[in-house]
Fold these 3 entries.
Entry 1:
Amino acid sequence: MRAYHFLPETWALEALVKQRIKISILNDLNDPFELLNFEISEQANQTDWQKTISIMSKSTGVLCFSKDWSNPLLWSHYADQHKGICLGFDISEESLEKIEYRNCPIPYDEIKVIFDGDMYKENPNNEKQEIAMKKILLTKYEGWRYEDEVRCFASLEDSEDGKYFLDFTVNSSTKLTLKEIILGVRCKINEKRINDCVQCEVELIKAGLDSKSFKVVRAK
């Protein structure tokens, strides 16, 4: 599946040179409702849940992608107001998880099984708990629907200055393969600089604006 990752110019160039993208930590994502997207009232459960989040965030991270690069909001929010770059990857279907968008929090009854013991210590293989946890990790408020997001979860192993990265390859058949480099409408980087960063052939696209719709498209 082709999926897209938006970055400001500097970070995008670094990603291309080092052939890796940064893994986001679960408790440091930009949505304040991330992992807090369900009904919960009991103080004891709130405390337990914060402990669970802390444990999860030490071992598991996430890479966020969009299924499309035509939405101008994505470029504005994640690619430095269209001055950045979007990287298009081929990613194996089994590695990606689709986000579910909804207008209200997940009812507590649908996830309460998580609080039946410590799923990361006492009962790590409980299938019902795993299903409930996956629901929490893949549910966001309806207002985020414009992102058309899919996620790839990754283990946090070796860090560099407290940051974690996932390597990608260029034009091969691995889990994360770079296929497209899309330069934003306001991006000033030229083709030579991109070629200096990427030694293998990928498709280079310059973005433009469609005069008949509010979409970012391939420039003519």
Entry 2:
Amino acid sequence: MANPSRPVFLVSDSTGITVETLGQSLLHQFPELAFEVHVLRYVNDAQKARAARDRIRAAGEESGLRPIVFSTLIEAEPRAILAESGALCLDPFATFLPALQQELHARPHPAAGRTHGVIDDDDYTARIEAVNFALQNDDGVSTRHYPEADVVLVGVSRTGKTPTCLYLALHYGLRAANHPLAEEDLDGERLPAELRPFRDKLFGLTIAPERLHRIRSQRRPGSDYASLARCRHEVGQAEAILRAAGVPLLDTTSMSVEEIATTIIPNVEERGHVK
């Protein structure tokens, strides 16, 4: 019989972005253990804190394991109520703010949701414009705006180009376009003509054929598009074309979107395309 999953609650008085990122990062350090993760957002008053407390306590009783709680609650009362759950409560603000206060000789002024507020209007506007750019230049619809791009991701279908473009736009304000290598492109031995003027902006994404086969099979099961033979052919041809053109190439098989994006950024900066 498999060991039960330990209940984990990521509790926030706002969007949950901060606590979810931190909590998941810490849990990933224990890959041999099983966790059942719940995200509780907008726990910003006593009533909601009591509901969260009761849910956490019930999960512990059902699993027979002490729950783990990561929380970023600012107000003292909801935090105290949450502590009544009997869980191991870990609060990064309580851990780090006192040390920062002592070092900076200043008192913090906590406010719920402040970690993700709009601090710089120009930066926020640039990121929104970058997201619009990524959406308008998705899937090789047109190369008309490629002169404005910071990077153009190239690869066969389903290698992670679209989500990576959106991540680069939303988190870094980069104007990222993506261009799939179609069947007719792969029949040749050179980079498609429409991409050659932008060679210094191109970045190739590749993937193991077996992984590509599984991804495509979820989308179009039993199709030629998803067949392992076609996946092997497309990946092999795409890699040969990109390498011959001197395009940087990244294997995304076991990488998250975040890892792909942060690997691409230094290359973009080195080429000097970041505005």
Entry 3:
Amino acid sequence: MPYSEMQKPYAILFDWDNTLVDTMPLICASLNKALTHFGMEPWSEAKVKQTIQLSARDGLPAFFGERWQQASSIFRDYYHQHHLDFLTPFAGAHDLIEYLYVQKIPMGLVSNKQGDTLRKEVCHLKWDHYFSAVIGAGDAEKDKPDPAPARLALEQMQQVPSLNVWFIGDAPVDWQCAEAIGCWPIPIRSIHQEAKSYQQAIKNCSDLEKILAKL
């Protein structure tokens, strides 16, 4: 459905990493810390972007096998030492959420980043008052692409799933989660091939704000 046929959303769910904030350089450095610890070749940022979508408990076993918990510990230790120093909002991200806040459109975050870490980052940017729900990995019984974290976020926001609830994210796990719960998936700045199949895909936060202002 083209945006010209849409009405303003009742609520919006956002992914966090590579959607509102650019944490990819730190994610890449943290993962490579774990890879090199086990004598494995480091990954390029492009490979990390293409490959890392799932939460640690779902994704790391595929790369590290039985050593995944140790790899997760190495990753998280490095990440937690540096994450607030690297935290960088994308251009237009703050303007977008400020616009939605003024328009009284409820917002929630649904991320595969560990919940406590996610909330620290949101508070560090002083963005916590914008979001009615901040759900990360481990907060629900399953993580994205399962609909459980989105369902939990909507419950906290006192919203029901519908196509009038938009879910904005950069990765297929976001769009799959949205579709599984019955929300409208919107790919943003995605390098994933699957994004091309979504007519409603957008380039960045500023483009979305312009679209919303016309509805």
